[in-house]
């Protein structure tokens, strides 16, 4: 009963903050003016609505990716940003932004599919690297260090490209790293939404395998679960979800790590299907809330990465200090 009540409350909160995002902006225009004001209709449908949906999609993609990685590695600190996956995914986007200019293919920058593919390749490279080392290292600390090295390696390659890139491309990339939900066209939203949907569908097929793996790999195999297939599905799903969010809204930190832990602490839910649903709903609510908060500042919209880092960093510290409390059963 508490589970369904939690879902109902989250749905009400999501609807409320969704409407708030459509109401707020630089112009004092309300959604109730759409019927009689063409300017209001155009502003809301072509600017505020895509921005709100982008926050919603990022709120789905990053927390699911974080949950899957935590289950796969049995590590409470596993997360796209902590493990260096977001940085590697950003490297793919940086290559599109910088190399397309250096090689004279500036039109590539407007190709939504190319941006998403480059981001996916970077994320997949990081995940395969982490899997390779995690099979040889049993230490949580070592795995985090590998993630830091991946992030440093990605930053070094990005630095080399920045050194030779024109100033306008450098500015464009720096603005992208702050994270932003705005400026997306409906064609980009289509690619974003399709990529997230693909990642969700793949992730759903991993839930039965995760339930079995929680009880031990030997027991999972007796249930007919293909461990190797489940792992690869988790990796592919996490890569798609992380890549799509990173490509279109920037390298948003901490959401993938914090949301699954908040769900475990607040809702006391450990069964994977219920936890999955709560992670999706809470992720949507928090990203919509952060997107709304970012627009409250009088000097302009604050980058979303600043908001998520301010709130996510204390949660990460609490996880590190109380690590045993947050490890899955």
In short:
The chain has 14 helices and no strands. With 329 residues, the chain is mostly helical.
Question: What's the SSE blueprint?
Answer:
Layout: H1 2-23, H2 38-73, H3 85-102, H4 112-134, H5 140-164, H6 167-178, H7 186-204, H8 207-214, H9 217-222, H10 227-249, H11 255-267, H12 272-294, H13 304-321, H14 323-326
Helix pairs in contact: 1-2, 1-12, 2-7, 2-10, 2-11, 2-12, 3-4, 3-5, 3-6, 3-10, 4-5, 4-10, 7-10, 11-12, 11-13
Descriptive overview:
The protein is an all-alpha fold. The chain is 76% helix and 0% strand. It contains 14 helices and no strands.
Properties at a glance:
single chain; 329 residues; mainly alpha; ABC transporter involved in vitamin B12 uptake, BtuC; 14 helices; globular; disordered C terminus; ABC_BtuC-like
Q: Under the CATH scheme, which architecture would be assigned? A: Orthogonal Bundle
* Overall pLDDT confidence: 82
Rg for CA atoms? 20 Å
Q: What's the helix count?
A: 14
CATH class: Mainly Alpha
- Give unreliable regions as ranges: 325-329
Choose one word for the global shape. globular
Find the structural class using helix and strand composition: mainly alpha
Q: How much of the residues is beta strand, in percent?
A: under 5%
């Amino acid at each position: 009963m508490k589970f369904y009540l939690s879902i109902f409350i989250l749905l009400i909160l999501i609807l409320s903050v969704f409407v708030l995002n459509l109401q707020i902006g630089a112009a004092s225009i309300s959604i109730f003016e759409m019927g009689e004001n063409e300017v209001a209709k155009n502003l809301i449908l072509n600017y505020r609505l895509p921005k709100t949906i982008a926050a919603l999609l990022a709120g789905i993609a990053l927390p699911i990716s974080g949950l899957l990685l935590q289950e796969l590695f049995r590590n409470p600190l596993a997360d796209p940003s902590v493990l260096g996956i977001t940085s590697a995914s950003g490297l793919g986007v940086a290559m599109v932004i910088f190399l397309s200019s250096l090689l004279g293919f500036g039109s590539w920058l407007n190709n939504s599919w190319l941006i998403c593919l480059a981001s996916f390749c970077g994320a997949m490279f990081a995940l395969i690297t982490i899997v390779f080392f995690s099979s040889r290292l049993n230490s949580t600390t070592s795995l985090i260090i590998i993630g830091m090295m991946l992030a440093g390696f990605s930053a070094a390659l990005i630095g080399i490209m920045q050194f030779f890139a024109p100033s306008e491309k450098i500015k464009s990339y720096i603005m992208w790293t702050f994270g932003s939900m705005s400026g997306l066209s409906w064609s980009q939203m289509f690619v974003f939404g399709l990529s997230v949907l693909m990642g969700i569908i793949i992730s759903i097929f991993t839930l039965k395998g995760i339930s079995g793996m929680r009880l031990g790999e030997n027991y999972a195999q007796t249930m007919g679960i293909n461990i190797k297939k489940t792992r690869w599905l988790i990796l592919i799903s996490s890569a798609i979800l992380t890549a799509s969010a990173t490509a279109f809204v920037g390298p948003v930190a901490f959401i993938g790590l914090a949301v699954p832990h908040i769900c475990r602490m607040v809702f006391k839910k450990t069964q994977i299907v219920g936890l999955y649903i709560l992670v999706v709903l809470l992720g949507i609510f928090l990203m919509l809330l952060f997107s709304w908060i970012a627009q409250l500042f009088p000097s302009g919209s604050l980058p979303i990465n600043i908001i998520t880092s301010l709130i996510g960093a204390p949660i990460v510290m609490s996880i590190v200090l109380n690590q045993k409390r947050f490890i899955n059963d």
